[in-house]
Amino acid sequence: MNVLICGGGVIGASTAYFLSLRGVGVTVVESTGIANAASGKSGGFLARDWCEGSPLAPLARRSFDLHAELADAIDDDWGYRRMDTFGGHSGYMQSSGPGQVGWLAERVTIGQTLGSTATTAQVVPAAFTRAMMRAAESNGATLRAGRVTSVFDGGAEIDGERVAADAAVIAMGPWSILAAQWMSVPPVFGLKGHSLVFDTGSDVPSEAVFLEVRERSGAQSSPEIFPRPDGTTYVCAISSEVPLPVDPARVTPEAGAVERLEEMCRDLSPVLARAPILARQACCRPVTQDGLPLIGRVEGTKGAYIATGHSVWGILNAPATGEAMAELIVDGKASTVDLSPFDPGRLEPLDPKRLFGE
């Protein structure tokens, strides 16, 4: 069996890895580079039970456990570690909580413990995605530079060349919407988020923080702060709905967004205020109409599958998605996770005329 995976983000790399474990011939097709979009610019926060009460809960639990297993099974380093996680606020009335987090400013109130090392963890997303691709390649998978220009019964077209395959998986994040030109798929949208990466050295311990902030301007934001074991600290906030560029390399921060985030960080932590900024960036996360990912077969095109739309939980849910996709393609049915809530057929397909015109 030979499978083409369209997209070199975390979903595509994880699917390639689990297919390679089954002895399947895998080719990952990527136009800009592994983890060059959201998979390389997201936070990498993992939570075992934050999706409880939603259809995502079994996928999240399975994937959280798989992250720990992969860290032991694969001889590579992507910064996996367990974390304590706190929630709080700044710019509102001070209140008592479980105690201050020492590296944050006094104006920040920590109101609750959101997770412990039993339930929350992290990875460095770009390192994880690239490690999964390397592990797949060590099992025989290949990486091909190119742009997928069509998917059809029995294969895909790559830069105009028709390539035969037993299956093709669309895993192009928000750019999966381009597949509406070739087959019947629901719409996928891109939600832009902004982030900064600080060089904080050893000044920030393994503590993730989620905050509600009233900025000095009066605007309200929800920054998320993730210290990493490589001595950096990642901070994200400020989402926007903007048109998705055709080229992922053209996703850049909105005017004033990172400056606003920098000012916020200076107010939230003296450590962040003095730390050099290593990256000012933006990425587009894939979202669907009902907030659930699309994972499964694409009706009407033989051998076509899709795996995208994971929103903010793409890094968390990538391993279980890849494992289930491998089961679906090889065995005809996923056994580790029930994929029925994520069936692409639950949503109306996108009319390509709405996106691409007549």
Task: Describe the protein's architecture and organization.
By secondary structure, the chain is an alpha+beta fold. The protein has eight helices and 20 strands. The strands form four sheets. Strands 5, 6, 13, 14, 15, 16, 17 and 18 form an eight-stranded mixed β-sheet that branches. Helix 1 packs parallel to helix 4, helix 1 packs parallel to helix 7 and helix 3 crosses helix 7. The model has no long low-confidence stretch (mean pLDDT 95).
Question: Briefly, what is this?
Answer:
By secondary structure, the protein is an alpha+beta fold. It has helices spanning 10-21, 38-41, 57-73, 125-138, 257-268, 270-274, 314-331, 352-356; strands at 2-6, 25-30, 45-47, 81-82, 84-90, 108-115, 120-122, 142-145, 148-152, 155-158, 161-164, 167-170, 189-199, 207-214, 220-221, 224-227, 232-240, 277-287, 294-297, 304-308.
What are the key terms here?
single chain; 358 residues; alpha+beta; eight-stranded mixed sheet; six-stranded mixed sheet; 8 helices; 20 strands; 24% helix; globular
Residues in helices, as a percent range? 10-25%
- What proportion strand? 25-35%
**Most strands sheet:** 8 strands, mixed
Class inferred from helices and paired strands: alpha+beta
Q: Which segments are poorly predicted (pLDDT under 50) over 5 or more consecutive residues?
A: none
Shape: globular
Q: Write down the overall mean pLDDT.
A: 95
SS field, number of helical segments: 8
**Rounded radius of gyration (Å):** 20 Å
Termini Cα gap:
37 Å
Number of strands: 20
Element string (H = helix, E = strand): EHEHEHEEEEHEEEEEEEEEEHHEEEHH
